[in-house]
């Protein structure tokens, strides 16, 4: 099996579609100021399926902000059990569907930043019919489309597999907030023995903004017609 990383179209290449969204996540965990390491930081983990409507503090998670670490732990009380297995609340974690507006015409698949994947409704149906594993669609709550325009969905990715350890340089981890400096080689590989055999889309555990897909997904996506994104093959590191 071959694996690929989803990326944005190079700026020197023409775009086929005009679609663009102006959205915010429903909830965003605040960034933190840590008294131990002195860092102010937030991550970019996105979990559109997670619903915290019934948490008493959910109103305090509507707008991105930065808080002292002690306040962060209080704000995230009761949240861990709602997250996918193996994940813990992280500063900057984005929860719930995207909300806002959209304009223009969208291709079958769209990535705006390289760490998100939007799917047009008809394209999602065709991907599901082809038996791809691990597709978790969440409908965007956006305005601006005409009555005949198809809905857009965002795919949530399972966290699984790893980039090769030699391609990920990690500094010491703060015992309080968990921050650590991470540098990833631009020519990274996937650790072959760690890869899931039951997922066609996933995020590596040690690089959770890198969208990885299988050859099966790429072939299915190409049958949908042109999209404004790129698939870059990622080599496998074997031991």
From TrEMBL:
Top-level taxon in the UniProt lineage: Bacteria
InterPro entries with a match to the protein in the record: Gmx_para_CXXCG
Protein name according to UniProt: Uncharacterized protein
């Amino acid at each position: 099996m071959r694996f690929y990383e989803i990326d944005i179209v190079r700026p020197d290449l023409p775009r086929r579609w005009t679609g663009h969204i102006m959205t915010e996540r429903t909830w965003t965990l605040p960034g933190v100021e840590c008294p131990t390491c002195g860092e102010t930081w937030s991550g970019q983990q996105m979990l559109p399926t997670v619903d915290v409507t019934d948490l008493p503090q959910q109103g305090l998670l509507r707008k991105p902000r930065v808080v002292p670490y002690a306040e962060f732990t209080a704000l995230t009380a009761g949240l861990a059990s709602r997250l996918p297995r193996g994940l813990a609340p992280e500063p900057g974690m984005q929860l719930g569907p995207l909300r806002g507006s959209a304009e223009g015409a969208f291709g079958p698949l769209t990535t705006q930043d390289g760490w998100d994947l939007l799917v047009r409704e008809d394209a999602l149906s065709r991907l599901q019919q082809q038996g791809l594993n691990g597709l978790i669609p969440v409908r965007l709550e956006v305005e601006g489309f005409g009555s005949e325009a198809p809905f857009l969905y965002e795919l949530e990715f399972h966290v699984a597999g790893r980039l090769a350890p030699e391609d990920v340089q990690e500094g010491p981890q703060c015992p309080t907030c968990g921050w650590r400096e991470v540098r990833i080689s631009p020519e990274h590989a996937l650790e072959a023995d760690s890869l899931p055999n039951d997922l066609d889309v996933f995020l590596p555990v040690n690089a959770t903004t890198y969208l990885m897909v299988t050859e099966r997904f790429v072939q299915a996506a190409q049958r949908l017609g042109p999209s404004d994104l790129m698939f870059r093959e990622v080599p496998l590191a074997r031991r």
